[in-house]
Structure formats: structure tokens, C-alpha cells
Design brief:
β2 (22-27), α2 and β3 form a beta-alpha-beta unit. The chain has helices at 11-16, 32-47, 63-68, 95-105, and strands spanning 4-5, 22-27, 53-58, 76-81, 84-90. By secondary structure, it is of the alpha/beta class. Helix content is 37%, strand content 25%.
Amino acid sequence: MATVAVTDATFDAEVKNSDIPVVVDFWAEWCGPCKQIGPALEELAAEYEGKIKVAKVDVDSNPNAAAAMGVRGIPALFIFKDGQVVSNRAGAAPKAALQSWINESI
């Protein structure tokens, strides 16, 4: 399963009401580090299919979700489990680091 594009309108349904843990990536088209981690997140979404969902929120198009989460810099990553944030991190990281962060959090 590829990553899921989430908007302000679909944030609660896709993220907070998900029956599996959700990794949320707050990003923007102009953000270099966001583009660096994009392929790794796509790979992780495929590898963890059925176990986690990877959601991407474009902060330029969806400022309300980012504001509600207190996002001040991107990329900003959050893991939601049962509708609650269980972990978060900021900045780019290699796939292995993202994978171990996910494993520790879910």
C-alpha cells in the first residue's frame, strides 16, 4: 500500500479513527529534507502494509492539521496509535532510523 494523502478534512477519519497505527508525515513540495525521506516512507508503507498506515499531509494545502499538531518545522513525523500521538520526531533521517523509530513506537 502506498502512502495516503491526508487533508484537513480527512485527518480525523484517516488518522485519529484508524484501526491500525498511523505514521503522519507533515511535508511540503519545496522542502528538500521532506523529499529525501519520501522514498523511504513509500518503502516502509509497502513493507508494513496491513500493520501501519503512512499518511502524508501537505502543510501548504492543509494548514489546519499542521497547526493543530503544533508543527513548526518540516518534515515533522508523528505516530498515532488508537487516535493518540505515541511518538514524534522532526527532520530527515535514513530509512533504517525511521524503521527502528516505528518499531519502537508500535
